[in-house]
Design a protein that fits this description.
Layout lengths: L1 H22 L1 H16 L4 H25 L3 H27 L6 H32 L1
Helix pairs in contact: 1-4, 2-3, 3-4, 3-5, 4-5
Amino acid sequence: MTLILLAISLSIALCVLAFNFAIYALPFMVGLTAFQYAWGAETGFLLSGLAALVAALLSIALVIAVLGFAKNPILRLVALAVFAVPAMIAGYALARGVAHNAIESEIALNLLCGTSGLIVGIAAMVNLNGLGEAVLSS
């Protein structure tokens, strides 16, 4: 019984961790692309890692700057959507990877994964909007 409870609690902890990682899918992918580009230019591991870190932080800063200076709500929504679409894809893939062996029906699996992607995307938008308001209000 203790082993089952441990497995359930570790599964929940991994889902929470994966959810938090999926929210930051855009900065991760930008950083990974910058790392690969710098590594391909033979700059070395440390400089490639620094380029990845700077690129990831700049991607977040760019979206926050657009949220802070744009008065048009459609432009603000587009900036949030640019950040949220990779998070939605990551949330969908995360749910599909976890549940594809447990759910036989493809329709039910797509509904579950789509709902998961939508929740992760909305959470990414809310998280970034909150971060933008906290940074820009100070």
